[in-house]
Amino acid sequence: MLLNCYQDELLEAGCDEAGRGCLVGPVFAAAVILPKDFIPGELTDSKKLSHKQREELRPVIEAQAIAWAVAAVDQEEIDRINILNASFLAMHRAIEQLKTKPAYLSIDGNRFKAYPEIPHTCVVKGDGKYLNIAAASILAKTHRDEYMEKIGAAFPVYQWHKNKGYPTIAHRKASLEYGLTPHHRKSFTVSHPQLDLFVGLSE
């Protein structure tokens, strides 16, 4: 069973990102402050949930959270500052947009660029340990999926409505055959050997 948050003394926001391993589009991040009496239901790591479950949880989180925010860093910024820094920047933007300022941050993963004047803890696989990080993972994922489906309507050969920009075999083949769109991350080479790690993924 997931705990509500990493620590109980200070008002805490959980943070996570979505789209870091994609070939296309922005990286999205979310920050969520949950009430102590939040009832989790099926809430857990977004990757362990179906699309339907994530879509059902999103309005529950948004309605019951003390505060939540979603932000993005687009593909041009990613190419300019690299995906790691873009992920940090997206989380910073989400934190900045929170209507209630947290006093502590729990971050999914093992690295983070400190946000000014707010202490933080990085938690490896935190979206499977703490509800506030899991909630952030749901919001980042569902908001990004919605964005990819919207822009994908104009570029159907790439199947973004299915792969959401991740480097599936079909997406890579289409990118090599038809070339890159304005939404592609130009710093991500489609034929780069490292992309083999992501073949078949469509989180």
From TrEMBL:
Pfam families: RNase_HII. A divalent metal cation binds at D16, E17, D108. Signal peptide: none annotated. One of its GO terms (cellular component) is cytoplasm. Residues 10-203 form the RNase H type-2 domain. One of its GO terms (molecular function) is RNA-DNA hybrid ribonuclease activity. It is an enzyme of class 3 (hydrolase). GO terms for biological process: DNA replication, removal of RNA primer; mismatch repair. PROSITE patterns: RNASE_H_2 (PS51975). Its EC number is 3.1.26.4. Endonuclease that specifically degrades the RNA of RNA-DNA hybrids. This is Ribonuclease HII. The gene is rnhB.
